[in-house]
Amino acid sequence: MVIKESAEMYLETVHILAQKGPVHAVEIARYLNISKPSVSVAIHNLESEKYILIDQEGHISLLPKGLEIAERIYERHTVLTEFFEKIGVSPENAVADACKIEHDISDESFYKVRDLIAKLQG
Predict the structure, then answer these.
(1) Considering the chain, what is the average pLDDT of its residues?
(2) Residues 41, 47: Cα–Cα separation, whole Å
(3) Short-list 10, 41, 44, 4, CA closest to 27
(4) What does the DSSP 8-state code read for residue 23?
(5) Would you state the pLDDT for residue 2?
(6) Which residues pair with 60 in a beta bridge?
(7) How far is the C-alpha of 66 from the C-alpha of 79, rounded, in Å?
(8) pTM (two decimals)
């Protein structure tokens, strides 16, 4: 199934924020710098598609297929950020560029970059 880039961003954000504690829509809005109503629409769509679960207290958690996507995107983000920093890109631009590319890079290209980073470290 193909999922939109914006949905990937929401899932990745839930994954990142969940590492610090319970996730609510307001934290997602703050993290992504977008309006809470926009987040509410998106998370309810993700919930209806069974990517996330929203409990009675409004805590948002990833369901298995949402977690799989979030982990994949987060890995791409971290590897690409590291790659850009290793070739001399400033940390700020490395993060920004990785965020743009992580959704569109082919599996083949990503695996080659990941393998190159592993070689450089080992």
Answers:
(1) 94
(2) 10
(3) 10
(4) -
(5) 57
(6) 54
(7) 20
(8) 0.89
- Only one residue has tokens 């998370």, namely 43
In what helix (H) or strand (E) does residue 45 lie, and over which residues does it extend? helix 36-48
Rounded Cα distance between 89 and 34, Å, is 27
Q: For residues 11 and 28, what is the distance between their CA atoms, to the nearest angstrom?
A: 10
CA distance 117 to 79: 8
- Phi and psi dihedrals of 52, rounded to 5? -135, 165
Q: Nearest-CA neighbor of 96 among 69, 74, 77?
A: 77
Task: Average the pLDDT over 2-25 and give the result.
Answer: 93
Rounded to an integer, what is the distance from CA 79 to the centroid of its chain? 12
DSSP helix, strand, coil percent of the chain (3-state; round to 5): 70, 5, 25
User: Across the strands, what pairs with 53?
Assistant: 61
Structure token digits, residue 7: 């949905």
